[in-house]
Amino acid sequence: MTQTVSAVGSGVAIVRRPNRVRMLWLLVVVGVLVILVLISLVIGSRDVSLDDIVAALGGSTDNIGQAAVAKRVPRTVLAVAVGAALGLAGGVMQGVTRNPLADPSILGVNMGASLAVVVGIAWFGLATATGYIWTAIVGAAVAAVFVYTIGSLGRGGATPLKLALAGAATSAALASFITAVALPRADISATIRSWQVGGVGGASFGTIGQMLPFFVVGCAICLFSARSLNSLALGDELAASLGERVAIVRGVAAFGAVVLCGAATAVAGPIGFVGLVVPHLCRLLVGVDQRWLLPFSALAGAGLLVVADVIGRIVARPGELDVGIITALIGAPFFIAIVRRQKVRAL
């Protein structure tokens, strides 16, 4: 069994693994995710037994343990869905921009979605989950286009550093706008502040059901774009010579990522760094082939958010820390490490 090695823009050699090795890693990641889901059902302010889990999954809520499991099931499902959406969206954004620093939170996409939702709540009486999602998608799309346009100005086009700086500046400005909109509204400011942290507590199957169509559409678009993203990695000119319509490929893939980011932000708040950390770690396992990287990013993103949710319940018992805080603690050092690597220029 042979392995080939190629250099990427980060200056780190990435092993292109045979498909048998990739399939083995896929089984491992799926197995780990299943274990994490079971741990999420067991651990909380009150630990429960396996019997309680089985009974609760069967619809029984006869005791406190079973009732606790019944509450943890939807939040675990939501953590899996949101984590998968953010991990997949991050992988697509890095592929579309060929930027190792691309991430929905760093590029201002999550904050654009947040501002749109807050404005909708405060000024237009937005109240339904579906309305949140549509509004968040529009806000995410506007923010993404704005940041990419600003980052593309000047010599060199949209470099990783320029996009990161444009995204950081845009995120800061949008966060200020959110505060300005929410502060005069005492009736909604507490709810908005809590939502802005990012969390999966209080999840319900009704909310998940309203998010599901957007999640399916966004995932389908992103995964079907994988082969074309491989062509884009060779450079625009070579991709065009291979028959790819570069602008259309970028637009369609970016639209899929925006749909995922908007839906995830609408139901869970602006959770950061999942889309940054996960694709980088997955490249170490399966290489740079987007046909493998994107599904792995979705699975690993789901696992990371479930882990963050479990950690948040453990460290603050009997209360909890929202997953947005945990992912920021994990992701911020990772982001600094990437920025400090002077050889990082593009993927």
TrEMBL record:
CDD domains: TM_ABC_iron-siderophores_like (cd06550). One of its GO terms (cellular component) is plasma membrane. It is a multi-pass membrane protein. It comes from the Bacteria. The keyword Membrane applies. Its main location: membrane. GO terms for molecular function: transmembrane transporter activity. GO terms for biological process: siderophore-iron import into cell. Keywords: Cell membrane, Membrane, Transmembrane, Transmembrane helix, Transport. The chain crosses the membrane at residues 24-43, 76-93, 105-126, 132-151, 163-183, 203-226, 247-272, 292-311, 323-340. Gene3D superfamilies: ABC transporter involved in vitamin B12 uptake, BtuC. It is found in: Cell membrane. Belongs to the binding-protein-dependent transport system permease family. FecCD subfamily. PANTHER family: FE(3+) DICITRATE TRANSPORT SYSTEM PERMEASE PROTEIN FECC-RELATED (PTHR30472:SF1), FERRIC ENTEROBACTIN TRANSPORT SYSTEM PERMEASE PROTEIN (PTHR30472). This is Iron complex transport system permease protein. It comes from Compostimonas suwonensis.
